[in-house]
Amino acid sequence: MTLRHRPWEEAADFQIGLKPIAPGDWLEGGEADPAARKDTLIAAYRGLVWAETEDSRPAQAEVWEMVEAALGPAPRPPDLPPLYAAARRVPDDLCLMEKRDGQWRLTALSLSAGSFFTAEQVIGRSLAELHGPVTGFAERFLARVQRIFEGLRPELVLERRNWTLLNSAALHTPTSGPIRSRIGEIDPAQAGDVLNLRVERQTLRRLPRTGGALFTIRVWLAPLDSLRDDPDRLAAFARAWGAATPELRAYKRFDLYDDLVEAFLRGSQSR
Ligand code: HEM
């Protein structure tokens, strides 16, 4: 398997990177039964994967309609919050942002593949608060991202991607601790199999009726070994690993994986 997106080939630093895409390309699909995966998670870990504020139901209902417009009509389970009902139809996680007290805030989210955060931690947070842990976000990006939220036209669909490397093949990764604690056990000869490239493909669009904004997050995973068959892709990854800025490396804790990546790259060259 090769990953559909290879954002490491495009930038060595944090970036906004939002680009318009055709509205027909909004949802990538590609998962047979997202509802089964998400229902299992919500039954076991509700607070980690689902949260809503009281006043978010009208915009949630608009998200349901937007998904219906994209995928075709379907009966909406009456006992489920509309955003969750919508999220069950798509592989993506759905994050509803609405303007509250002058700030864009997360008012509901269905989060089945959170990258080291949980629904209960982030519900209600503003764009600034959500990105508190991201080095330099407030100084470099916040004002621009707020402007993008303000100016989002209804017909526009924006897309961005990010990536990281993790010793986990799980989509649901609410916390880093259990994953990072296993790094020391990895046999360097197995690094290409154990380490996964983790790509988030995100989209943003306006909810025209309620004025909210819908942010989607789709996580794609593939082992590093998936690069081995293509020398150009492998070389591009090696370059990206070496070129990542100190800030990006520190945020993503690439230092924890340097030796393993080096072993993987050495092993790949000698094959
Ligand atoms: C659409 C405009 C947005 C931009 C340009 C943006 C940008 C970023 C960037 C640069 C990062 C660091 C990792 C990466 O490279 O992606 C990040 C992390 C993150 N973003 Fe965003 N973001 C946006 C919207 C949102 C929204 C709507 C949410 C609401 C769920 C969100 C939640 C987060 C979280 C939870 C993190 C991880 C923070 C942590 O490490 O704890 N972002 N974002």
Structure description:
The protein is of the alpha+beta class. The protein has one domain. The protein has a seven-stranded antiparallel β-sheet with strand order 1-5-6-7-3-4-2. A hairpin with a 6-residue loop joins strand 6 and strand 7. The radius of gyration is 19 Å and the shape is globular. The model has no long low-confidence stretch (mean pLDDT 97). Protoporphyrin IX containing FE (HEM) binds next to strand 3 and strand 5.
Task: Describe how the helices and strands are arranged.
Layout: E1 19-21, H1 34-49, E2 50-52, H2 57-71, H3 82-87, E3 93-100, E4 103-110, H4 119-122, H5 127-130, H6 137-140, H7 142-151, E5 157-166, H8 177-180, H9 191-194, E6 196-206, E7 213-223, H10 231-243, H11 246-251, H12 258-269
Antiparallel strand pairs: 1-5, 2-4, 3-4, 3-7, 5-6, 6-7
Bound molecules: protoporphyrin IX containing FE.
**Radius of gyration, whole Å:** 19 Å
Q: Which of globular, elongated, flat, extended, rod-shaped describes the shape?
A: globular
**Could you give a short account of the major beta sheet?**
7 strands, antiparallel
Give the strand order, joined by hyphens, for the main sheet. 1-5-6-7-3-4-2
| Amino- and carboxy-terminal Cα gap | 19 Å
**Mean of the pLDDT scores?**
97
Low-confidence stretches: none
Number of domains: 1
Tell me what portion of residues adopts beta-strand conformation.
15-25%
Q: What's the β-strand tally?
A: 7
Number of helices: 12
Q: Helix and strand succession?
A: EHEHHEEHHHHEHHEEHHH
Bound molecules: protoporphyrin IX containing FE
Q: Give me the secondary-structure category.
A: alpha+beta
Helix content: 25-40%
